[in-house]
């Protein structure tokens, strides 16, 4: 069956994500609180979101990648800290590597997992929202590694393009606690895509709402083709990215040989959608869109950050040239 | 949510694959003219005789009455083996036929649908006029009721395959005093009626598929009106529910094959530095990777459209998203080919000339069937709810 729309059960799960995040994670929180969503993450632990896609024997909720994709799309819309993705992926790594205690500790929120982005092949990394995280996670197409914080040295704060996360430079050395070479990097690519989709959709919605409201020359600016066509392109990019991400998720779920190809495709179109929608959203807002007090700037910044997780777009564009397409 | 083909669908796919590999024409379709018509119609007839015409069309008019998923599987396999594009059968199969099914009366359906499916008759579209392109509701070709006939006088243009078609879905103004959307009639015109003059138009790609058609007091029986006199705008706008989302599948599959061929091309022609192969050039590799991702996403959008069609028989405007995406992508792919070829792309025949020809032909893909600007307006207004411009 081809059905990329949520059924009643999935819709209920989605509505739950939405109602919690709308009430507890308005994007305006980012300008007030310290970065890192320090109060939001314990709530997510309590709601069982960290172990959403892990089986009950691993201490999870027993859902699958479908629900995880829905969660990360909403997390992207609300610019939730990368620590959520760190925890979810970290728990998967621990479960797959057979370390049930560690998986349980991550799911219970006892150990947080910071995401790392590699800057070069010699160990230079960036750590995201990780100042208090005892664990760190990094991956590429070949595998995913979970490190103890002690593997990082020379940690120093650095002002970030996305100033709504804390960014630290560090050096990574030594052996990881756990390392897996399964399909987890593909899963990570899909979940990052889902977050990028959320960013792209939020940017689209903000731009469209503003275009209906803001009047110039005696009519809403959304009536002008220059603005309307920006918005239409934003909608098409978000549509393509969302459904490609779902297709990738189900290809992985069904162990299809084209799962890696579909995931790379999702990652490429989702990053493009988030970056270009983020940019257009500011343009549609005009002067106000350039201010710190308005929300558009938040989304383009987050798009850049997410687009570097697990390797940048150039890498994925190379990967997909040799990955197996559907038969 | 689910993306998984049932055992029954798998069996259907195997059956389709088997039939196609035994039956597709081995010759290439002629580019235009009566030879093209003969080729396209013979291929349609063969599909009909094999039981494969109108997979999801109602069985009472000669279709198979199968599911939209099976219709899509048919098109996927169709394109995978490189079966010829519907060519001059396109309007009959993807526009006029479905419109007659949705809005025609029993007599019209019983007469026309079997003729389309069996490859006896093909159709062209008579919508655009020299002064009415994107602003279609401004058409001026007149239709005057006289006895049992509608007498049509005026001019249509961009009538693809008008010179080799049997019937036409024709929009005429039958009430010049009514508001512009209320005075239009959708009528089935026979292209051989007296008073019709057809002139082919040469295009920038050299292929003659466009025509202009002149009507000088052409008498069309009133019983050919579909959906009622002066109700033609709503008929023209009624996209069909039962095949929604699958009409673009052959084009999507064809484009995927083109992108695969382009990657292959890049492995065999030199990069701009003249030393490495084109695919080893970072910029070219990036562009090719992006194209491969975008064609995957177009397939995902088709699956989304099918998902919606299963929930809600009333079609939404999301078809505009797919056709916009496809038009832009088609141009991007052929332009990338010409860029990779460099000076070799200047030659229109010989080894790589096919790419140049396809590049030139792709300019129509962001214009025909509604320009991409109109497609963006539809998305802006009907998907996103943005206001129409004053006076627009």
The protein's oligomeric status is heterodimer
Terminal CA distance of chain A? 18 Å
Sequence of secondary-structure elements of chain A: EHHHHHHEEEEEEEHEEHHHH
- Tell me the β content of chain A: 5-15%
CATH architecture grouping of the largest domain in chain A: Orthogonal Bundle
| The CATH top-level class label of the largest domain in chain A | Mainly Alpha
CATH topology of the largest domain in chain A: Butyryl-Coa Dehydrogenase, subunit A, domain 1
Number of strands of chain B: 9
Summed up, the domain count of chain A is 2
Structural descriptors:
heterodimer, A: 327 residues, alpha+beta, Butyryl-Coa Dehydrogenase, subunit A, domain 1, Butyryl-CoA Dehydrogenase, subunit A, domain 3, two-stranded antiparallel sheet, 52% helix, globular, B: 392 residues, four-stranded mixed beta sheet, four-stranded antiparallel beta sheet, 11 helices, 9 strands, 44% helix
């Amino acid at each position: 069956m081809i059905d990329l729309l949520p059924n009643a059960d999935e819709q209920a799960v989605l509505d739950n994500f939405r109602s919690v995040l709308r009430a507890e994670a308005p994007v305006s929180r980012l300008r007030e609180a310290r970065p890192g969503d320090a109060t939001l993450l314990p709530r997510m632990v309590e709601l069982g979101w960290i172990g959403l896609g892990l089986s009950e024997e691993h201490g999870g909720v027993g859902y699958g990648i479908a629900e995880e994709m829905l969660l990360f799309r909403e997390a992207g819309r609300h610019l939730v800290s990368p620590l959520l993705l760190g925890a979810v992926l970290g728990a998967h790594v621990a479960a797959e590597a057979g370390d049930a205690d560690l998986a349980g500790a991550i799911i219970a929120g006892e150990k947080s997992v910071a995401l790392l982005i590699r800057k070069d092949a010699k160990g230079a990394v960036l750590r995201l929202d990780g100042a208090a995280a005892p664990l760190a996670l990094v991956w590429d197409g070949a595998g995913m590694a979970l490190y103890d914080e002690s593997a990082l040295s020379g940690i120093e704060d650095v002002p970030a393009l996305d100033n709504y996360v804390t960014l630290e430079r560090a050096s990574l050395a030594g052996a990881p606690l756990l390392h897996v070479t399964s399909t987890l990097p593909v899963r990570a690519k899909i979940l990052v895509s889902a977050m990028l989709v959320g960013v792209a959709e939020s940017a689209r919605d903000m731009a469209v709402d503003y275009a209906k409201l803001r009047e110039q020359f005696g009519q809403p600016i959304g009536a002008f083709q220059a603005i309307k066509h920006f918005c239409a392109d934003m909608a098409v990019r978000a549509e393509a990215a969302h459904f490609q991400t779902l297709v990738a998720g189900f290809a992985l779920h069904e162990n299809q040989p084209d799962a890696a190809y579909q995931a790379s495709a999702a990652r490429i179109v989702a990053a493009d959608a988030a970056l270009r929608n983020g940019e257009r959203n500011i343009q549609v807002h005009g002067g106000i869109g350039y201010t710190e007090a308005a929300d558009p700037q938040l989304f383009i910044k987050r798009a850049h950050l997410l687009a570097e997780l697990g390797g940048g777009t150039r890498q994925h564009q190379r990967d997909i040239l040799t990955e197996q397409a559907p038969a | 949510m689910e993306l998984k083909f049932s055992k029954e669908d798998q069996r259907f796919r195997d059956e389709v694959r088997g039939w196609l590999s035994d039956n597709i024409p081995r010759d290439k379709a002629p580019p235009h003219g009566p030879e093209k018509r003969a080729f396209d119609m013979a291929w349609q007839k063969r599909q009909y005789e094999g039981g494969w015409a109108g997979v999801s069309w109602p069985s009472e008019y000669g279709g198979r009455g199968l599911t939209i998923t099976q219709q899509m599987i048919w098109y996927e396999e169709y394109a995978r083996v490189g079966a010829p594009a519907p060519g001059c059968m396109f309007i009959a199969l993807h526009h006029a036929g479905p419109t007659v099914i949705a809005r025609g009366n029993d007599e019209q359906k019983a007469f026309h649908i079997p003729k389309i499916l069996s490859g006896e008759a093909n159709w062209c579209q008579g919508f655009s006029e020299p002064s009415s392109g994107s602003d279609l509701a401004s058409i001026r070709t007149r239709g005057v009721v006289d006895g049992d006939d509608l007498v049509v006088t005026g001019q249509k243009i961009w009538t693809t395959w008008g010179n080799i078609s049997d019937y036409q879905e024709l929009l005429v103004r039958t009430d010049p005093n009514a508001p512009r959307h209320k005075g239009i009639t959708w009528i089935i015109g026979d292209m051989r009626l007296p008073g019709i003059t057809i002139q082919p138009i040469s295009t920038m790609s050299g292929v003659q598929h466009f025509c202009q058609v002149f009507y000088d007091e052409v008498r069309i029986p009133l019983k050919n009106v579909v959906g009622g006199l002066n109700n033609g705008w709503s008929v023209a706008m009624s996209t069909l529910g039962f095949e929604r989302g699958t009409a673009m599948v052959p084009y999507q599959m064809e484009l995927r094959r083109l992108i695969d061929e382009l990657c292959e091309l890049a492995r065999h022609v030199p990069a701009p530095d003249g030393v490495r192969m084109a695919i080893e050039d970072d910029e070219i590799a990036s562009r090719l990777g992006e194209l491969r991702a975008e064609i995957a996403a177009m397939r995902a959008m088709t699956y989304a459209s099918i998902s919606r069609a299963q929930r809600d028989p009333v079609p939404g405007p999301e078809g505009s998203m797919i056709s916009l995406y496809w038009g832009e992508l088609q141009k991007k792919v052929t332009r990338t080919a010409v860029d990779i070829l460099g000076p070799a792309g200047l030659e229109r025949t010989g080894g790589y000339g096919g790419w140049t020809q396809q590049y030139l032909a792709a300019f129509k893909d962001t214009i025909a069937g509604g320009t991409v600007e109109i497609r963006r307006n539809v998305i802006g207004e009907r998907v996103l709810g943005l206001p129409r411009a004053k006076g627009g």
